[in-house]
Specification:
Layout (H helix, E strand, L loop, with lengths): L10 H5 L11 E9 L3 H12 L4 E4 L15 E2 L7 H34 L6 E8 L7 H12 L5 E3 L12 E9 L2 H14 L3 E3 L4 E5 L5 E4 L4 E9 L15 E14 L7 E4 L5 E8 L2 E15 L6 H15 L5 E13 L5 E4 L6 E5 L5 H17 L6 H4 L9 H13 L20 E7 L2 E7 L5 E5 L10 E3 L4 E3 L6 E3 L5 E3 L12
Parallel strand pairs: 1-2, 1-10, 2-7, 4-12, 10-17
Antiparallel strand pairs: 3-6, 4-6, 5-6, 8-9, 9-10, 11-14, 11-15, 12-13, 13-14, 16-17, 18-19, 19-20, 21-22, 22-23, 23-24
Helix pairs in contact: 2-5, 2-7, 3-4, 3-7
């Protein structure tokens, strides 16, 4: 099975179906139009529908076919960016709000699973932040103190309860969680429809209009009029510049290895080195004798490396050293993470707008950030106060994150130099089947892909978002933008990931 947004198949896609809602034609009207049927979009739609509001959800493809089905579905209030860093940037109160919101998100997911009877392998488990024996454990005491100030329970332990490998000292975070991401989304979608929500797939938003008469235009010719619009597309497709200076796109890599059932206790595991790793287990549908050990990490900026085989090999080597019961690596995939410069997601009213709301900046905690988005945006649309609103405000300016802001934007600016580089090869005859390369034709850069039948597919290599030159991703077989993370289909040039909203221009236009 081919992934809808890349070549590799996640464990969720291998063990559950992608639901395909019908496309939308004609006109629709609703209180709220939600663009994106991932965790943030469907949670928002569900919570709005619970309050009796009419909701229309549209998505480019199937339910969960974007980044949600590329997650590893850790449900954690132990945050990747560390509480001591959040406290430095956002203060003690900000750290407390961060801890409170992620804790509330896990509780909300558990409540939804119970209320809607969603069979998605949800369970509460302990999480462990580990420091390898060769590194200083000072970071653990620093993080424990900051977490406790934030109201998050974290306790020091000399060992993780995994007897086959010494992971070194750790912080234990009790009552974390995990679930099957796609089964949960399918259950959410069913609940939205039961509550009167309308969900449409293969319906690409081409224009999102704010103001007194908000509406969404689509590639099918349909239009949705609404009092409010929620853009939940991983990274906003309604914004050209402002939000994209505040966050950067990273690729993260994941393997799923088969292990004997019950050979590893169910825990979440995260480590501190760079590159870092994250670990969990998942049942293998119908095979009671085995489970999947899911291990991720080895991140890099989107479009700025094409060495995925090396990264997958590094993940497998790291895993086999620590988990001797691994039988084979059954699945591997990659996903896209939006890293905000100040460690907090952007959830709220679109800067400078009135009736358009956004949810982005998952920072490796997409399942809880997506759930926070549903809770917070529902309050904002209803006109209720929410204590988290200022922390997640997309219009915020974080002066204490100025160095990270500068570093990321200098990196982005440097990518425009690709306009001056020669092509990867001199002629199309050098392109092998299954390969994509950048060609130079005079002043133009061409993204050229030769399919397995030998046919050539050529598009302008200029990203339709802000004009960077795309790069070939040989693992996911896509064209990826190194500036802001837009990704495009190798055959059609159509958008796979925003912020681009239109595809690559055919080379003959």
């Amino acid at each position: 099975m081919r992934s809808p947004s890349g070549e590799n198949v996640s464990v969720w896609l291998a063990t559950a179906d992608l639901l395909q809602p019908p496309p939308l034609f004609g006109r629709e009207a609703a209180d709220v139009c939600v663009v994106g049927a991932g965790i943030a979009g469907l949670t928002t739609a569900y919570m709005l529908a619970l309050e009796g509001r009419s909701v229309v959800v549209i998505d480019d493809g199937e339910i969960g076919s974007g980044e949600t089905h590329h997650t590893t579905a850790h449900l954690a209030n132990a945050l990747d960016d560390r509480y001591y860093e959040i406290e430095r940037v956002h203060g003690t109160r900000g750290a407390k709000l961060a801890g409170n919101s992620h804790t509330a998100a896990i509780d909300a997911i558990e409540e939804i699973v119970g209320r809607e009877n969603i069979e998605c392998d949800f369970e509460r488990i302990d999480g462990y932040l580990v420091v390898p024996p060769e590194e200083s454990a000072d970071v653990l005491s620093k993080e424990a103190a900051a977490a406790q100030r934030a109201g998050v329970h974290a306790e020091y332990t000399e060992h993780v309860p995994l007897p086959f490998y010494d992971f070194g000292p750790a912080l234990r975070f009790p009552r974390q969680g995990q679930l099957h991401a796609l089964k949960y989304l399918n259950g959410l979608a069913a609940a939205v429809k039961r509550l009167g929500g309308r969900i449409y797939g293969n319906t690409h938003a081409t224009h999102i209009e704010d103001g007194e008469r908000p509406h969404v235009d689509t590639a099918t010719g349909a239009q949705i009029s609404a009092k409010a619009i929620v853009v939940a597309t991983n990274t906003p497709v309604n914004d050209r510049v402002a939000m994209h200076t505040k966050q950067a796109a990273y690729r993260t890599y994941v393997i799923a290895a088969r292990v004997p059932a019950h050979s590893i206790p169910h825990v979440l595991l995260w480590d501190t080195p760079d590159p870092y790793h994250y670990v969990r287990l998942q049942s293998a549908n119908g095979d009671r004798s085995r489970e999947f050990l899911i291990v991720g990490g080895e991140d890099h900026k989107t479009g700025q490396a094409d060495d995925a085989d090396k990264r997958f090999e590094a993940l497998e080597a790291w895993t086999r050293e620590r988990f001797p019961m691994v039988e084979d690596v059954a699945l591997r995939w990659s996903g896209q993470i939006m890293e905000p410069v100040d460690a907090m997601a952007f959830i709220g009213r679109n800067p400078g707008g009135t009736n358009v709301y956004i949810a982005t900046g998952d920072s490796g905690n997409g399942m809880t950030h997506g759930t926070i988005a549903g809770m917070l945006l529902t309050d904002l649309i209803a006109g209720r106060e929410n204590a988290w609103a200022t922390l997640y405000d997309p219009a915020r300016k974080s002066l204490r994150a100025a160095m990270e802001f500068t570093r990321e934007n200098l990196n982005m600016a440097a990518q425009y130099a690709d306009h001056l580089t020669p092509g990867d090869v001199g002629s199309v005859e050098e392109i092998a089947p299954g390969e994509g390369v950048i060609l130079r034709r005079g002043f133009r850069q061409i993204a050229a892909y030769r399919d397995e039948q030998g046919n050539l597919h050529e598009h302008s290599a200029v990203c339709s978002h802000l004009g960077c030159i795309v790069a070939w991703n040989s693992t996911e077989q896509s064209w990826d933008c190194p500036c802001h993370g837009s990704r495009y289909d190798k055959l059609t040039g159509q958008v796979l990931n925003g912020p681009a909203i239109t595809g690559l221009t055919p080379a003959n236009e």
